[in-house]
Design brief:
This protein has 3 helices and no strands. With about 110 residues, the protein is mostly helical. Helix 1 runs antiparallel to helix 2. The longest helix has 29 residues.
Length: about 110
């Protein structure tokens, strides 16, 4: 693909040089030569990226939410613990929560 890109660019440059040599009005020829060369390079780059977008993907891309059952030796648990205490008993509440967490772990 890159080889074809280089060949097209070389042919465009050669055609532009030949046209500049044999044209009498050099300013107009140079302007149209630059425009033509830019057009050819732009089409080549567009064609390259268009071909890249049409190739089969080599990787898997997942978007969204999906679930599949499988066996695993790791588990992620979500746990919510709650204690009702007064404003004066916050320290005692934290201690009770700590004891609850330790009791759950053991």
């Amino acid at each position: 693909m890159i080889t074809a890109l280089l060949v097209i660019i070389c042919i465009a440059i050669a055609a532009g040089i030949i046209w500049l040599i044999f044209t009498k009005d050099k300013v107009v020829a140079r302007t149209w030569g630059i425009v033509g060369l830019s057009f050819i390079i732009g089409l080549t780059v567009f064609g390259y990226f268009f071909m890249q977008s049409r190739q089969a993907p080599t990787s898997l891309r997942v978007v969204g939410y999906a679930s599949k059952l499988f066996e695993s030796d790791l588990v992620k648990w979500n746990l919510t613990m709650q204690r009702n205490v007064s404003h004066d008993g916050l320290k005692d509440g934290y201690n009770k929560m700590s004891n609850d967490v330790n009791a759950f772990k053991n």
